[in-house]
Specification:
The protein is mainly alpha-helical. The radius of gyration is 13 Å and the shape is elongated.
């Protein structure tokens, strides 16, 4: 049971990180950022949120 809760929590955090990174990328793109800058931003947000589950 505990393993299932941990896996569900990890999946939820990763899903939230991807949603936040996507939203940040869209807002950056609207503001005129280049594609490499948006990808860097998305990677940074995802890595930061994924580090929260460690």
């Amino acid at each position: 049971m505990t393993v299932a809760i941990v896996l569900l929590t990890a999946a939820l955090v990763v899903a939230a990180a991807l949603l936040v990174a996507t939203a940040a990328g869209i807002l950056a793109r609207i503001d005129g950022a280049t594609i490499p800058a948006v990808l860097t931003l998305a990677c940074a947000v995802t890595a930061t949120m994924a580090a929260a589950i460690r």
